[in-house]
Design brief:
By secondary structure, the chain is α+β, with helices and mostly antiparallel strands. Helices cover 10% and strands 24% of the residues. The chain has five domains: 3-121, TIM Barrel, CATH 3.20.20.80; 130-227 and 368-411, Trefoil (Acidic Fibroblast Growth Factor, subunit A) (Trefoil), CATH 2.80.10; 275-316, no CATH class; 417-543, Trefoil (Acidic Fibroblast Growth Factor, subunit A); 553-649, no CATH class. Strands 4, 5, 6, 7, 8, 11, 15 and 18 form an eight-stranded antiparallel sheet that branches.
């Protein structure tokens, strides 16, 4: 089996056209779960909406309803990475004109004479939406999807890592025109409502652009997060340091007679601060158009004209002066000397590092910043309220504009990832358009950005960072065809890839059943038949800028257990230790160890023996009282910090 084919005609299930795609998503849940686990893509073999006729199980069959379903389905198939056949191309000439017969004759996009139907021509899907993550202090907003016990739950958690089948939970499709966020895992939109108790709640619900509860305005506060920084310099090969033998100290030659002229070291050739711009512009002294493969130089353009062009493909080179390096000054010749003294010996010098082999950088990647701000609800029932984080929970409350309400919207196309074979260090590396899975580390002999990529699950592209306009492209349309870096083109079907984070496969979308693979380390990439048993098809996408999560407190039953009776009393500090300012009692678990000892005393284990070394001057912050036992804190005692609560200030 190469693919999983499915037919779905929601029109026959007595639903409105606006709910047709939602019904399809519900019907595909189990099929998607099974196909992903088997490493197979889904093909929608037939779907459509008739534009005429009537039947008891059909709620509407009109040109308008047919257009609504077509628009929604095209957006749905793009976001869910589905290949499909739409039923059907043409209306039928044969058949009767009964109510049921009209249903069967009017599934087409074109009429019987091959003219596009007016309701099809009027369909406008809209400008492309963006696949984004919604970040808050190193965590992302997620929604549990189908086949989970908590489907529809909205919460904060770390970004996904490894083969967990949870990437879809943190993928949101941002519609800038309607200010909505659609979850990929549920195909529903972020929504707020007021419950019976008058409290605003946050959840996901079937998307409806007319529903104000799903409209969110992002108010930037003026700050920003840097999510991608280009490494413009070439990494250097590690230098080899010469070790000096300790028994051979360098000798100094005696000074020459005062009649000898002083020795002047040769003047180094001047370093041009504009050298990197000369390397980019070459001989061009006007506006330059550039791509990863060639460049053109315009004539008679001004800086303003060049500035009006896209910065990703144009740069101004007309302000560079001609640079003629000044020859180095020769050192004066010393007068010959007849001295027999041994000249001075210099300490060995490390071998100068050499730049990495030529790496075609192409257009320079630019620093990517995303604004930080608050999500303000435009709901009629909760106007002016914001999303707030509260210990991993998300709430809709009056806006406070503090840190708990600050979020950022990061498009997937701006988030750096490395891609490697699972269980290995074979990272996909790009150089001069050639793409290999190499074991060479970033800090060795490759440019820091050659192993960094940007994966866009909506555009289905994998773009190089070092060649910022080059995408993974199948350049040989065959089994075992080579995959290399080529100029990104949204209309190039040979650049379409989709990632299955359960099996690790990267599907080639143009021809179903093919996956990205490699034959081994330092071997070029190619496509081959998908097989979950093949290790060299299992890829891991790892975020370069990963979040950090604060450790959750232990439950009360583990956080406040009494010390066992068999515990030995703590060993008192030696005479060399600084005496505590108060008298401590032996053995009670609620008495703090002296702050000057080198080891903190755990509350649930025997105190470790102290050392005779002088105590370190490390300050420890007094831990907060345990919420599980308030009575203990009422006593006139000091709580000993546990080893997990110690924090150096």
């Amino acid at each position: 089996v190469d693919v999983v084919a499915a037919n779905q005609f929601s029109q026959w299930e007595n639903v409105w056209a606006k709910d047709g795609v939602n019904t399809m998503f519900d019907r595909l849940k189990n099929i998607q779960a099974s196909s992903r686990a088997a490493g197979k893509q889904i093909l929608i073999a037939e779907t459509g909406w008739s534009s005429n006729g009537s039947f008891p199980s059909i709620k509407e069959a009109t040109p308008e309803s047919s257009g609504v379903y077509l628009k929604d389905f095209l957006l749905f198939a793009e976001q869910q990475n589905l290949n499909f056949y739409y039923f059907s191309s043409f209306n039928l000439k044969w058949g009767d004109d009964s109510a049921f017969g009209l249903i069967e004759k009017n599934w087409g996009l074109f009429d019987q004479n091959r003219n596009i139907l007016p309701h099809v021509r009027s369909v406008v899907v809209g400008k492309p939406q963006k696949a984004v993550r919604l970040w808050h202090n190193g965590l992302v907003i997620k929604v549990d999807g189908a086949n989970t016990r908590t489907e529809g739950r909205v919460y904060l958690d770390l970004p996904t890592t490894g083969l967990t089948d949870s990437l879809d939970r943190e993928v949101w499709f941002y519609d800038e025109d309607h200010k909505t966020f659609r979850s990929k895992s549920t195909n529903q939109c972020l929504d707020t409502f007021v419950d019976d108790a008058g409290v605003s709640q946050l959840h996901v619900y079937w998307c409806d652009v007319t529903n104000a509860n799903q409209h969110w305005d992002f108010h930037a506060d003026g700050s920003y997060e840097i999510v991608s920084v280009p490494q413009v310099e070439v990494a250097e090969v590690a230098t080899t340091t010469t070790t000096v033998a300790p028994t051979e100290a360098p000798t100094e030659a005696p000074t020459d007679p005062p009649t000898d002229p002083p020795t002047v070291p040769p003047t180094a050739a001047p370093v041009n601060p504009l050298a990197k711009y000369y390397a980019e512009c070459g001989d061009c002294r006007n506006c330059q158009f550039f791509t990863p493969y060639y460049s053109l130089c315009y004539a008679n353009w001004g800086p303003r004209d060049c500035g009006l062009m896209p910065k990703s493909t144009h740069r101004w080179c007309g302000s560079l002066p001609a640079f003629v390096p000044v020859p180095p000054k020769a050192a004066p010749t010393r007068r010959p000397t007849t001295s027999t003294r041994r000249p001075a010996t210099r300490p060995p010098q490390p071998t100068p590092s050499t730049a990495a082999p030529g790496v075609f950088l192409g257009p320079k990647a630019s620093e990517v910043r995303v604004p930080v701000g608050v999500f303000v609800s435009l709901s009629e029932t909760s106007p002016g309220k914001c999303i707030r984080s509260n210990d991993g929970l998300l709430q809709v409350v009056p806006c406070s504009f503090d840190d708990s309400t600050k979020f950022s919207i990061r498009p997937f196309e701006t988030e750096e990832v490395t891609i490697k074979i699972a269980g290995t260090d074979w990272k996909i590396t790009e150089s001069f358009g050639r793409v290999v899975a190499t074991t060479v580390s970033k800090v060795d002999s490759v440019h820091p950005d050659t192993q960094t990529w940007f994966y866009d699950p909506l555009a289905k592209t994998i773009r190089s960072k070092t060649n910022s306009q080059a995408c993974l492209t199948l350049v040989e349309d065959k089994i075992h065809g080579a995959v290399q870096g080529r100029l990104c083109d949204a209309d190039n079907e040979f650049q379409q890839w989709s990632y299955n984070d359960l099996t690790g496969q990267i599907y080639y979308m143009e021809k179903m059943g093919l996956c990205l693979a490699t034959d081994g380390p330092n071997q070029p990439l190619h496509v081959q038949f998908c097989d979950i048993a093949v290790q060299n098809q299992k890829w891991l996408f790892e975020l370069a800028h990963h979040g950090k999560k604060k450790q959750a407190p232990l439950p009360c039953e583990y956080n406040n257990q009494p010390a066992p009776a068999t515990l030995a009393p703590p060993v008192q500090a030696p005479a060399t230790a600084v005496a505590p300012t108060t008298t401590t009692t032996v053995a009670p678990t609620t008495t703090a160890a002296p702050a000057t000892t080198t080891t903190a005393v755990p509350t649930t284990t025997a105190a470790p023996a102290t050392t005779t070394a002088a105590p370190t001057k490390t300050r420890t912050r007094r831990p907060l009282p345990s919420p599980c036992d308030k009575n203990e804190m009422d006593a006139n005692t000091t709580v000993a910090p546990t080893t997990t609560q110690r924090e150096t200030i």
